[in-house]
Design goal:
The complex is a heterodimer of chains A (about 240) and B (about 350). Helices cover about 35% and strands about 25% of the residues of chain A. By secondary structure, chain A is of the alpha/beta class. In chain A, the strands form two sheets. In chain A, strands 6-7-8-3-9-10 form a six-stranded mixed beta sheet, sandwiched between helices. The two termini of chain A are about 35 Å apart. Chain B is mainly alpha-helical and about 350 residues long. Chain B has one domain: Orthogonal Bundle (ABC transporter involved in vitamin B12 uptake, BtuC), CATH 1.10.3470. Chain B has helices spanning about 1-5, 15-30, 30-35, 35-60, 70-90, 90-115, 120-140, 145, 175-200, 205-215, 215-220, 225-250, 255-260, 260-275, 280-305, 315, 325-335, 340-350; strands spanning about 155, 165-170, 175, 255. The chains are: A alpha/beta (about 240), B mainly alpha (about 350). Chain A: Keywords: Amino-acid transport, ATP-binding, Nucleotide-binding, Transport.
C-alpha cells in the first residue's frame, strides 16, 4: 500500500478558550474516499478547517505528501494541491457562475476539457453560466461550490457535508461527480451525514467523538455492523 | 471595438449608457461647447476627479479596503510635479520626471503601508492610513523650505501649455495652450480610466472582488490575499498620484489645502458612494455630479433666490450663502434613495 496522502498526528486545535480537537490521529489513503463521521459538534468541521489552515493547530503534525504543513499559509496549502469545499458552500455571490469557475482555476486558465467534464457532471451550471451566483438555488450553489473546487485538478479534496439539505436528485448528481473524481485517482476526505452516500462512496471511515478519533476501519465494515454504529455514534446510520 | 476598449464592461443600462455618452461628449468638446475659463476649469477638474475617484473605487469598491490615505497619494503626485518643475525649471522633462517620481513614491509608500498593515483587520488598516496621511500633511506643512509650507508652491509649466501660446482659431474658438493643456489632461485621464477598467475586468480584478466578498474563501482557493491587497493598494496609489500630477499641471500651484486636505478625502468618499461602489462608471457619475454641484450650486441658488424674492422665507432658504447646507442635504438624500449608488440603481432597474 502506498503512503497516505494526508496524515494527522496527535493534532490539537483550540478555538478561543475551547479545546475542540484533542489529539486527532487520522490517515487519508491515496486515491480513496475517506469518510469522516461522528455526531454533531465532535470536531469534524474543525478537523477539515485545521487541515486547510483556517484554524491553527496548537500542536501535533499535519503531513501532506509527507511534508509538514502546519506553518504554511492557507493559500500555500491550496496551491500544494488541496481543494476545500466548506459547509457554507463558500461561493462568491456577487460574481457570475463563470467568474466563480474561472476563480477556481487559480494557477492558470480553466482547462476547456475540464470545463466540459464539469458542465457534464453539473448541467445546471451551464444553464446559469452567466447568472450571478447569489441568485442560484441552494442545490445549484452547492454544485457550484464543488465544481469550483474541481475546476483545478487537485490531489486531495476536503469536502464538508456536500449533500446537506439537498433534494435526492441533486444528491445523486453530487455523488456521481465525487465518484468520477475518485475514478480519476483523487483522494477525498468527506464529512457526510447521509448514510447512503457515505456507504456508496466511502472506502474507509474515521469516526470522531469529543475531539478525537475513536474508530478507524473499512466503510463496509461500519456499514454492516449496526451495533458498531450505535456504539460509536449513539445511533444506527440506517436511521439517517 | 468600443466594447473591447471598455474591456467588455458595458454599462448594462440604456440610461447609464446615454449619460456616459453625454458626459464623454461634453468633456471631449468642452473647450468648444462651453464658454469661459470657469467652464474649462470645471471640465478639467471633472476629468481629474473621475480618475481619482475611480482609483479609490479600485480599493474600496472592488477590494473592500477602506483607506483614508488616498489624498496623500494624490498630493504626492502633485508635489512631485511641483518640486520637479521648481528645481528643473519649466519643461516637459520636469513634468515627466515629477509624475513618474510621484507615482513611484506613492507605490513605495503604499507597499510599506500595505505590507505592514493589510494583514490586520480592516478598521486598523483604515486607522493606520489616517495616521500616515495626517503625518504626511503635517510634514508637508512643516518642511516649508522644500514644500512651501502652508503657502504651497507656484511654478511654471511648458509655455506651450499656457494661455500665452496662441495657436489660431478652431471652430470659432481661440485655440490656446490652455486648451492644449486641457486635452493633455482629458486624454491622460481617459487612458488611465480605461486602464483601470481593464484591470478590474481582468483575472486580477476578479480575484480582488472575490477577496472583497470573502478573503478566506479566496485564500482557500490558492490566492495570496495579502499580495493581492497590496498590489491593489499600490495600483490605486500610483493612479491617484498620476491624477495629482495632472492636477498640478493644470493648476500650476500646489498647496496642502488643494491636494492633501481631509476634505478632499471626504469628497472622494462621497463621490464613490453616490456614483456606486465597485462599478467604475459610478466614479464618472459621482465626480461629475459632485464637481458640478460644488461649482455651480451657489450660482443656481443665487438665481433661485432672485427669482423668488417676492415670496416669504424661500429666498432666505435658497440664499447662496447656504449652498453647503443644500449640498449636504442633496447628498444625504442621494445616499438614502440610492444606497447602491446611481449606477447600482440604474442597473437594478434594468435587471427587474
Amino acid at each position: 500500500m502506498s503512503d497516505p496522502i494526508l496524515t494527522l498526528k496527535n493534532v490539537y486545535t483550540d478555538i478561543a478558550q475551547y479545546h475542540i480537537l484533542q489529539g486527532v490521529d487520522l490517515e487519508v489513503p491515496r486515491g480513496e474516499v475517506t469518510m469522516l463521521l461522528g455526531r454533531n459538534g465532535v470536531g469534524k468541521t474543525t478537523t477539515l478547517k485545521t487541515i486547510m489552515g483556517q484554524w491553527t493547530a496548537k500542536s501535533g503534525e499535519i503531513l501532506y505528501n509527507g511534508q509538514e504543513m502546519k506553518r504554511l499559509p492557507v493559500s500555500a496549502r491550496a496551491r500544494a494541491g488541496i481543494g476545500f469545499v466548506p459547509e457554507d458552500m463558500g461561493i462568491f455571490s456577487d460574481l457570475t457562475v463563470e467568474e466563480n469557475m474561472l476563480l477556481g482555476a487559480s494557477s492558470g486558465p480553466l482547462d476547456p476539457k475540464r470545463k466540459e467534464w464539469l458542465l457534464g457532471a453539473f448541467p445546471a451550471l451551464g444553464t446559469f453560466w452567466n447568472s450571478e451566483a447569489g441568485n442560484l438555488s441552494g442545490g445549484q450553489k452547492q454544485m457550484l461550490s464543488i465544481a469550483r473546487a474541481m475546476a483545478e485538478d487537485r490531489e486531495l479534496y476536503l469536502i464538508d457535508e456536500p449533500t446537506k439539505g439537498l433534494a435526492p436528485a441533486i444528491i445523486a448528481t453530487m455523488a456521481n461527480a465525487l465518484r468520477e473524481l475518485k475514478a480519476q485517482g483523487r483522494s477525498i476526505l468527506l464529512v457526510e451525514q447521509n448514510f447512503s452516500v457515505a456507504r456508496a462512496l466511502g472506502d474507509s471511515a474515521v469516526v470522531m467523538d469529543d475531539g478525537s478519533v475513536i474508530w478507524t476501519g473499512a466503510m463496509a465494515e461500519l456499514a454492516e455492523n449496526k451495533d458498531l454504529q450505535e456504539n460509536l455514534m449513539g445511533l444506527s446510520m440506517e436511521a439517517h | 471595438m468600443i466594447v473591447r476598449l471598455i474591456s467588455g464592461d458595458t454599462p448594462r443600462s440604456p440610461i447609464l449608457t446615454a449619460l456616459l455618452v453625454l458626459i464623454l461628449t461634453c468633456l471631449a468638446g468642452a473647450p468648444f461647447i462651453f464658454e469661459g475659463v470657469r467652464a474649462l476649469d470645471t471640465a478639467a477638474r471633472i476629468c481629474i476627479f473621475i480618475l481619482l475617484v475611480a482609483s479609490y473605487d479600485l480599493l474600496l469598491g472592488y477590494t473592500g479596503i477602506v483607506s483614508f490615505a488616498h489624498t496623500m497619494f494624490f498630493g504626492i503626485g502633485a508635489y512631485g510635479v511641483a518640486l520637479a518643475s521648481t528645481h528643473m525649471g519649466r519643461g516637459f522633462d520636469a513634468l515627466l520626471v515629477g509624475s513618474v517620481s510621484g507615482a513611484l513614491a506613492a507605490i513605495v509608500l503604499a507597499l510599506l503601508i500595505g505590507l505592514f498593515s493589510l494583514r490586520v483587520r480592516a478598521i486598523f488598516f483604515a486607522m493606520i492610513t489616517l495616521a500616515v496621511a495626517s503625518a504626511v500633511a503635517v510634514l508637508v506643512s512643516q518642511f516649508s523650505n522644500i514644500t512651501g509650507g502652508e503657502d504651497g508652491l507656484t511654478y511654471k509649466i511648458p509655455r506651450v501649455l499656457t494661455s500665452a501660446n496662441r495657436m489660431g482659431e478652431v471652430m470659432g474658438v481661440k485655440f490656446t495652450g490652455k486648451i492644449l493643456n486641457y486635452y493633455l489632461i482629458f486624454v491622460c485621464s481617459l487612458v488611465l480610466f480605461l486602464t483601470l477598467l481593464r484591470i478590474v475586468n481582468s483575472p486580477f480584478g476578479r480575484v480582488l472582488q472575490a477577496i472583497r466578498e470573502n478573503d478566506f474563501r479566496a485564500e482557500a482557493i490558492g490566492y495570496r490575499v495579502v499580495w493581492y491587497r497590496t498590489a491593489a493598494t499600490c495600483l490605486s496609489a500610483a493612479t491617484a498620484a498620476l491624477a495629482g500630477s495632472l492636477f498640478a499641471i493644470w493648476l500650476r500651484y500646489v498647496g496642502p489645502d488643494t491636494t492633501l486636505s481631509f476634505e478632499i478625502m471626504l469628497d472622494i468618499l462621497l463621490m464613490v458612494v453616490i456614483g456606486g461602489m465597485g462599478t467604475m462608471y459610478g466614479a464618472v457619475l459621482g465626480a461629475v455630479l459632485f464637481v458640478l454641484a460644488q461649482t455651480y450650486l451657489q450660482n443656481l441658488m443665487g438665481a433661485a433666490s432672485h427669482a423668488t424674492e417676492a415670496l416669504p422665507l424661500i429666498p432666505e432658504l435658497v440664499d447662496p450663502d447656504r449652498w453647503l447646507m443644500w449640498l449636504g442635504i442633496l447628498f444625504v438624500l442621494s445616499v438614502y434613495f440610492f444606497p447602491t449608488g446611481i449606477v447600482g440603481r440604474l442597473r437594478r432597474q434594468r435587471a427587474t
